[in-house]
């Protein structure tokens, strides 16, 4: 039975990761969407644990019911996989904005997640009826819970490091379904060989509740709340320190689950010999104050200052080993205590004669309700409202309150002669004071950590962080170097800056978008960043309407305050509208069509960013273009690898077979790229664009180009680096990034500490040929352009 629960937990985590990925593609990856998904998932499990003992009679064989639940999960897992395209189509036709949008997102998440999660939540209560509610039986219930968590560890690592990295969501789903079927088959086989005698009275419990049981349910609910809230806060901080890749999130989740599994096993073993489990539960909560304070100290005052340079090793697996050790060192103590609390809570409210399913269902539901409040509260309110420092202080105080409640009111008089009585009021008061001091000692997250993340130790003293903000989806910062250069930071790295090479790329992205086509009136800018690209678009006199799709509300505020001089004060421009939503959701649900879309999202190795680089997304963008419309896309070469760059370019060219590449160099070497796509074959009239730049109304555009080193249209187009037909041999082994595999985020996640931009660009230029049919210009101008392209830097000897 314990092994069955290991398999069940493994399948459940694979499903959770796959379903979240599929549904994020449909309802978006904004904080609201993720909150809806998480609340629905955990709410379904809570309902399943509560409803099973109420509606399934105890006369049914527990193992047989458990097996049927596993089969049901497998069937619905397949249905969700194959029905998701239909769900997505229906959703995008209904989706709106505001409260209505949130309700529709919740409706579709419920349709997909509630049926299987109801069954998942019912599995532990179902199998619990095979044991008695004596000391031995309750201990086994804790071991079942621990086994389920052990399986979840395997599932999270299997999905994050193999199934989704090498295969796709279909293969991952089939693997989970296979595990469900094997578990169900074994369950039915064991049931056939294991006699079961239903309890007298159709399983109705005749036991009376122990005095003070309500305190146990409140305590385990508060324990679940602090556990999930801490996971949200710590994952955000660790993603800055390690890099916000899919591997980092899988690693953090695995470490937390390992701690829960260890704690659950220890708590189950302890509960067999404990006469006063409520006392142990109370002290577990008090010890959590120290454990939370320990992790808070490690994450803000210790680990960021370890003398580590991630770029020393070119092998990402060495870095992952280091991150695993650091994560275990900083995070493990608290999950052990949270894990131990569950079996101790079971032992605290169990009495002989109880329906085991009702016992487990009640405790599990209380813990899950707390977890829902903690996860949603931390992600939607606490961090953005009061910051991670104060959020962790609140968690320490809540843990102290939970422990004092248990020790002060939860221990019956009969147990009062034990440890709780000896501790007395003075000891509890001292514990409260110590908890308060621990909370007070938690420090704010360092600005340099928000700015430079994993490279903080190597960048100390090199910049002044002049702004730090913790928003709904990300922590952002602005820094100023000694030479006056401003940097905008997100995901623990520089995302945009006023450095010459960055200004050139950002303005190239904007100006190529509006200058190449003859008429561009409406433009969508994906990702606000420092606002330089959006600003370059906004000053083109032909543009009447510009929409910036930005997922983090803090970014436009920061940009408007700090980068207005570099972005033409774009956020305050009356023809610019800022839409706070993830760009994919905005494009898919928009009823409008546009003349141009330019995309400058987060690095593709950031978890979730690859959704903006899939063939399906590019096809959706095409459908929202007016005839002659254009799409431009930023592609970084630094902090990446050849495989990821090839995937980005090849996927773009699949959607735009006539696509072009323009290169941006730094110190004569490759740095980053602009991809340019149109449905129709692109023709660039060089003289017409030059004439436009000489017109008075285009003076701001011409000046903007001069500021980045382009004196003429020939200078701008000398950055031409190739087209789809040229690069076919180079891209032959490229992996296309699809919605169903998001291959790019796994490829890019292995290259975030690499700096191979120069060789990647040089290798790509070997395939460049002068495009005879692309440019329109008189022969002398064409020859000048040919010479300029040949002289353009980037080739390595």
Number of strands: 14
State mean pLDDT (0 to 100 scale).
87
Text of the CATH class of the largest domain: Alpha Beta
The largest sheet has its strands arranged as: 7-6-5-8-9-11-10-13
How far is the N terminus from the C terminus? 65 Å
Number of domains: 4
* The CATH architecture of the largest domain: 3-Layer(aba) Sandwich
Measured as a percent range, the helix fraction is 55-70%
Q: What is the oligomer described by this structure? A: single chain
- Count of alpha and pi helical runs: 28
Q: Quick gist of this model?
A:
This protein has 797 residues and is an alpha/beta fold. 62% of the residues lie in helices and 10% in strands.
Walkthrough of the structure:
The structure is a single chain. The protein has 797 residues and is an alpha/beta fold. The chain is built from 28 helices and 14 strands. The protein has 4 domains: 195 residues, Growth Hormone, Chain: A (Up-down Bundle); 236 residues, Up-down Bundle (Growth Hormone, Chain: A), CATH 1.20.1250.20; 42 residues, no CATH class; 294 residues, Vaccinia Virus protein VP39 (Rossmann fold, 3-Layer(aba) Sandwich). It has an 8-stranded mixed β-sheet, sandwiched between helices. The longest helix is centred in the middle third of the chain and has 54 residues.
Notable features of this structure?
Growth Hormone, Chain: A; 62% helix; elongated; 797 residues; single chain; 28 helices; eight-stranded mixed beta sheet; alpha/beta; 14 strands; four-stranded antiparallel beta sheet
Write the layout of secondary structure elements.
Blueprint: H1 2-27, H2 31-55, H3 62-94, H4 98-128, H5 135-166, H6 169-193, H7 213-242, H8 246-273, H9 277-302, H10 316-331, H11 333-349, H12 356-409, H13 419-440, H14 447-452, H15 456-459, E1 464-470, E2 475-480, E3 486-490, E4 493-497, H16 500-515, E5 522-526, H17 532-538, E6 545-550, H18 554-562, H19 564-567, E7 576-580, H20 583-589, E8 594-599, H21 615-623, E9 625-636, H22 642-655, E10 660-666, E11 669-678, E12 684-685, H23 686-694, H24 699-707, H25 713-717, E13 720-723, H26 743-748, H27 757-765, E14 775-776, H28 779-791
Parallel strand pairs: 5-6, 5-8, 6-7, 8-9, 12-14
Antiparallel strand pairs: 1-2, 2-3, 3-4, 9-11, 10-11, 10-13
């Amino acid at each position: 039975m314990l092994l069955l629960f290991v398999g069940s937990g493994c399948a459940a985590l694979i499903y959770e990761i796959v379903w979240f990925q599929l549904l994020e593609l449909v309802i978006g990856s904004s904080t609201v969407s993720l909150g809806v998904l998480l609340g629905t998932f955990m709410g379904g499990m809570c309902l399943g644990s509560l409803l099973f003992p109420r509606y399934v009679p105890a006369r049914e064989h527990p193992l047989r019911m458990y097996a049927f639940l596993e089969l049901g999960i497998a069937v619905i897992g397949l249905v969700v996989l194959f029905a998701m395209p239909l769900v997505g189509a229906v959703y995008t036709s209904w989706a709106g904005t505001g409260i209505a949008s949130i309700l529709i997102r919740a409706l579709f998440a419920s349709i997909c997640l509630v049926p299987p999660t109801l069954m998942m939540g019912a599995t532990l209560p179902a199998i619990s009826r095979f044991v008695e509610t004596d000391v031995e039986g309750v201990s086994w219930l804790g071991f079942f819970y621990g086994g389920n968590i052990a399986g979840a560890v395997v599932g999270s690592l299997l999905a994050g490091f193999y199934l989704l990295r090498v295969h796709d969501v279909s293969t991952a789903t089939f693997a989970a379904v296979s595990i469900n079927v094997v578990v169900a088959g074994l369950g039915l086989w064991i049931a056939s060989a294991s006699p079961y005698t239903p309890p007298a009275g159709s399983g109705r419990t005749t036991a009376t509740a122990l005095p003070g049981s309500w305190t146990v349910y409140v305590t385990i609910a508060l324990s679940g709340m602090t556990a999930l809230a801490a996971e949200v806060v710590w994952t955000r901080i660790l993603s800055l320190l390690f890099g916000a890749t899919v591997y980092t999130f899988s690693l953090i989740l695995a470490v937390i689950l390992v701690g829960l599994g260890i704690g659950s096993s220890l708590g189950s073993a302890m509960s067999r010999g404990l006469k006063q489990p409520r006392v142990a539960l109370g002290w577990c909560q008090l010890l959590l104050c120290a454990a939370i304070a320990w992790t808070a100290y490690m994450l803000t005052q210790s680990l960021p200052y370890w003398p580590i340079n991630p770029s020393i090793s070119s092998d990402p697996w060495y870095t992952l080993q280091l991150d695993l050790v650091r994560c275990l060192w900083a995070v493990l103590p608290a999950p052990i205590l949270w894990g131990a609390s569950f079996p101790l809570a079971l032992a605290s409210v169990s009495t002989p004669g109880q329906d085991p399913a009702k016992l487990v269902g009640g405790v599990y539901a209380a813990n899950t309700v707390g977890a829902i409040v903690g996860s949603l509260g931390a992600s939607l309110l606490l961090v953005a409202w009061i910051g991670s420092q104060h959020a962790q202080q609140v968690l320490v105080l809540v843990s102290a309150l939970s422990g004092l409640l248990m020790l002060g009111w939860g221990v019956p008089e009969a147990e009062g002669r034990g440890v709780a009585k000896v501790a007395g009021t003075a000891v509890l008061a001292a514990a409260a004071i110590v908890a308060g001091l621990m909370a007070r000692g938690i420090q704010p997250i360092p600005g340099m950590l928000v700015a430079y993340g994993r490279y903080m130790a190597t960048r100390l003293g090199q910049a002044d962080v002049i702004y730090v903000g913790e928003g709904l989806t990300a922590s952002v910062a602005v820094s100023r170097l000694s030479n006056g250069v401003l940097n905008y930071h997100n995901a623990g790295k520089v995302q945009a800056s006023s450095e010459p090479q960055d200004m050139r790329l950002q303005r190239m992205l904007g100006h190529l978008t509006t200058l190449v086509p003859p008429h561009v009136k409406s433009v969508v800018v994906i990702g606000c960043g420092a606002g330089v690209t959006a600003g370059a678009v906004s000053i083109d006199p032909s543009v009447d309407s510009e929409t910036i799709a930005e997922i983090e509300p803090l970014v436009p505020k920061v940009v408007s305050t700090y980068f207005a001089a570099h972005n033409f004060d774009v956020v305050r421009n009356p023809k610019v509208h800022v839409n706070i939503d993830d760009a994919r959701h905005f494009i898919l649900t928009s009823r409008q069509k546009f003349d141009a879309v330019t995309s400058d999202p987060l690095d593709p190795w950031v978890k979730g960013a690859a959704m903006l680089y899939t063939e399906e997304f590019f096809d959706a963008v095409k459908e929202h273009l007016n005839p002659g419309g254009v799409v431009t896309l930023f592609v970084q070469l630094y902090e990446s690898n050849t495989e990821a760059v090839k995937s980005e370019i090849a996927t773009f060219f699949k959607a735009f077979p006539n696509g072009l590449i323009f290169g941006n160099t730094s110190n004569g070497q490759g740095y980053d790229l602009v991809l340019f796509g149109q449905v129709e074959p692109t023709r660039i009239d060089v003289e017409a664009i030059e004439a436009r730049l000489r017109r008075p109304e285009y003076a701001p555009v011409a000046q903007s180009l001069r500021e980045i080193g382009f004196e003429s249209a020939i200078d701008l187009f000398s950055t031409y680096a190739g087209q789809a037909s040229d690069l076919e041999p180079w891209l032959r082994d490229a992996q296309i990034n699809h919605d169903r595999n998001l291959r790019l985020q796994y490829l890019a996640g292995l290259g975030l500490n690499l700096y191979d931009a120069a060789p990647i660009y040089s290798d790509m230029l070997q395939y460049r040929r002068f495009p005879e049919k692309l440019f329109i210009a008189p022969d002398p101008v064409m020859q000048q352009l040919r010479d300029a392209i040949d002289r353009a830097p980037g080739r390595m000897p």
